[in-house]
């Protein structure tokens, strides 16, 4: 979610320039990845899986012969039945994960507009998975990042490393506070269309992960800019979203998308950009966490530019202009970075953003605000942003 589109002389396409949200101190050998400011080390080793395997070996040795044979019988039976049920392969998404216990599904939170959304990709000492619910007061949606084609990374991976009991406790606390807990997929590190990932298989795999770890839904942070330039992104996203919703039924799970605002510019993209996606599968998407940032130093930095009149660089991509193109207004969530360090451009102070939010509300908009990211955007940030429209009680 930290990509900037820049015109390159001699090219008709716009290239993404990736801007990291925060620069952390890197240990030797660390790899810095621009993924909404994602900073990750080398690929994680499945240490927890290895430890679990060792424990399993010890436990199996202690079993009586009859119990061992019974376990083998049921294991083979489940393996035989699995494909018949159409369950997608794990594809390594549970690498390093703590064992998943079978339990009664937790009650799912179902937020209504306005949505106040916070992402979490940064590494925070002492926090694994999701932070204490008291730290996110004022929000009703919290999104862990990221689920990639190669598996869960960063705080999405941290969520898998908690025990089933710990996850259930955290979910219960979040739901009691009226907060939905989701995962975001792709980000700027993944280019699923360009890399040839099958949209149906990818949707099946990601949906299975959401269900396995009992989250409330998934956010599609698709940032394959080359595919959008080439006109191949739209069809991929339509197929992916259709299958994702088939596996994650409406009412039971939330599906959101997080496109950059320029992708809504009409008559600009070869196959229509996100206006085509919305026309084809908008009814399957609960709302859009729109990235009104990282698109140029003067883009979306005033209430006018953000709400009613975008520049000629990205025509008709301000909030109400997107709605005029046919996208449902109450699905258009305004996304902004928490600090100047969380994006390259597009920052607004919380107090200025609060004025814009109030102005939009007075014109009938009630979709809400998204921010990148925790912990820079804490309770004080959202309290200020909501002060003139939907005050935090």
Automatic annotation (TrEMBL):
Name of this protein: chitinase
Enzymatic reactions: Random endo-hydrolysis of N-acetyl-beta-D-glucosaminide (1->4)-beta-linkages in chitin and chitodextrins
Enzyme Commission identifier(s): 3.2.1.14
Upper classification of the organism: Eukaryota, Fungi, Dikarya, Basidiomycota, Agaricomycotina
GO molecular function: endochitinase activity
Residue ranges annotated for the GH18 domain, each copy included: 114-393
Matches recorded under InterPro entries: GH, Glyco_hydro18_cat, Glyco_hydro_18_chit_AS, Glycosyl_Hydrlase18_Chitinase
Keyword terms: Carbohydrate metabolism, Chitin degradation, Glycosidase, Hydrolase, Polysaccharide degradation
GO aspect biological process, one term: polysaccharide catabolic process
């Amino acid at each position: 979610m930290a990509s900037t589109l820049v015109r390159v002389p001699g090219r008709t396409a716009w290239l993404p320039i990736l801007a990291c949200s925060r620069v952390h101190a890197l240990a030797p050998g660390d790899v810095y990845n621009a993924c909404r400011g994602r900073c990750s080390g080398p690929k994680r080793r499945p240490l927890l899986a290895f430890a679990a395997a060792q424990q399993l070996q010890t436990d199996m040795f202690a079993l009586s012969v009859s119990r061992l044979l019974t376990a083998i019988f049921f294991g083979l039976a489940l393996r035989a039945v699995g494909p018949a049920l159409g369950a997608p392969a794990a594809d390594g998404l549970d690498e390093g994960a703590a064992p998943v216990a079978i339990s009664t599904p937790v009650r799912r939170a179902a937020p209504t507009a306005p949505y106040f959304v916070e992402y979490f990709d940064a590494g925070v000492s002492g926090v694994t998975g999701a932070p204490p619910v008291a730290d996110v007061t004022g929000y009703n949606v919290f999104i862990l990042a990221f689920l990639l084609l190669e598996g869960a990374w960063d705080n999405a991976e941290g969520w898998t490393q908690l025990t089933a009991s710990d996850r259930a406790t955290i979910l219960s606390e979040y739901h009691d506070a009226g907060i939905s807990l989701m995962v975001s997929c792709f980000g700027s590190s993944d280019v699923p269309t360009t890399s040839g990932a099958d949209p149906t298989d990818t949707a099946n795999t990601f949906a299975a992960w959401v269900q396995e770890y009992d989250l409330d839904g998934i956010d599609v942070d698709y940032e394959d800019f080359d595919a959008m330039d080439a006109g191949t992104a739209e069809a991929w996203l339509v197929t992916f979203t259709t299958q994702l919703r088939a596996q994650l039924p409406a009412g039971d799970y939330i599906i959101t998308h997080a496109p950059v605002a320029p992708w809504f510019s009409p008559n600009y993209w070869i196959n229509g950009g996100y206006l085509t996606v919305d026309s084809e599968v908008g009814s399957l998407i609960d709302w859009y966490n729109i990235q009104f940032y990282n698109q140029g130093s003067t883009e979306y930095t005033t209430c006018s530019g953000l709400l009613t009149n975008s520049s000629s660089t990205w025509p008709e991509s301000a909030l109400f202009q997107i709605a005029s193109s046919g996208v449902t207004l109450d699905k258009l969530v305004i996304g902004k970075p928490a600090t100047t360090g969380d994006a390259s451009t597009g920052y607004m102070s919380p107090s200025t953003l609060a004025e814009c939010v109030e102005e939009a509300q007075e014109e009938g908009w009630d979709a809400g605000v998204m921010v990148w990211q925790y912990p820079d955007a804490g309770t004080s940030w959202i309290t200020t942003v909501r002060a003139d429209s939907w005050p935090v009680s």
